[in-house]
Request: fold
Amino acid sequence: MEYLIILEIKFKTNMEKVQDTLRYFGFKQIQNHCFCGNLNKVEIAELKSKISELIKEKDSLILFPICNSCYMKKEVYGCEINFEKEYFKIL
Reply:
């Protein structure tokens, strides 16, 4: 399933840890504080576990599941973001 993650992390060092974790799971950064990726149930459970260890009291991370049908209906205005290129997972 596709997931959209929006985050607001207070401290830069913690932001880098969260971003590195998301990239490790194959998420691609599509905006400054927005990531998109495709994970199965086992992978998303592992990601949630790792993220819960990193998120501090003043931080915020919102995870939106998006069905494949809805994801395919996305519309992009302005600069085209290639969601398929550079997609890799290291598990």
Observations:
- The mean pLDDT is 87.
- The CA atoms of residues 10 and 57 lie 9 Å apart.
- The longest strand covers residues 2-8.
